[in-house]
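stage 2 :: seqdesign
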């Protein structure tokens, strides 16, 4: 289950049924310039980490996500997006050796295909992200036990594909997949000891409103 869902997301989900009823039989979704989407996303690393020469696998989790878009016209948008912290478990063949929290933020440009009133409307995007790492910890009794672990902030390009399902003039459902590419250094007791290549795929679903 996702954790740390924002109040904005909870409010969006609570108001959605009333808004769907109000939108029934209304006019066009065209001409709306602002869209907000709240939902749940699975932050799943596709890469791994290397610490002191040992390969360490990374496991992700489901988190809350929130995005805001400004539509320059009906097809082109600029989106700011972020998610709550995902706990990455660091494991080897001998079990868990540590953990770290990872929280992404991103800014991207998007192209939405076709008319805003299409029932299903796909889109693609390309942008730049930053992944902040904190709460690094070593597993007691494991190889890094008693040592101070640090992971630098990762940054790089982000690609997005997704689709919106229109529910009325002001409301829609969204599904999307984001790929975040970028590496960061790992330190142990203040000395560089390896690299994290998480390169996560973030798969999300949510409810959006536009006006």
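stage 2 :: out
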């Amino acid at each position: 289950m996702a954790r740390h869902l924002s109040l904005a997301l909870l409010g969006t989900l609570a108001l959605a049924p009333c808004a769907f009823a109000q939108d029934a039989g209304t006019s066009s979704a065209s001409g709306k310039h602002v869209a907000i989407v709240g939902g749940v996303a699975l932050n799943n690393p596709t890469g791994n980490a290397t610490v002191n020469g040992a390969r360490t696998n990374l496991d992700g989790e489901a988190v809350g996500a929130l995005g805001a878009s400004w539509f320059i016209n009906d097809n082109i948008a600029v989106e700011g997006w972020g998610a709550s912290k995902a706990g990455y478990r660091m494991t080897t063949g001998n079990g868990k050796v540590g953990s770290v929290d990872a929280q992404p933020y991103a800014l991207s440009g998007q192209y939405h295909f076709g008319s805003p009133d299409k029932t299903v409307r796909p889109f693609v995007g390309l942008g730049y992200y930053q992944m902040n790492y904190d709460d690094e910890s070593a597993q007691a009794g494991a190889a890094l036990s008693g040592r101070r672990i640090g992971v630098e902030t990762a940054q790089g390009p982000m690609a997005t594909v997704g689709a919106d399902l229109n529910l009325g003039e002001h409301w829609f459902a969204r599904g999307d997949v984001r790929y975040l590419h970028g590496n960061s250094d790992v330190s142990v007791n203040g000395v560089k000891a390896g690299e994290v290549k998480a390169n996560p795929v973030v798969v999300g679903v949510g409810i959006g409103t536009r006006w």
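stage 3 :: structure notes
- The radius of gyration is 20 Å.
- Residues 1-25 have pLDDT under 50 and may be disordered.
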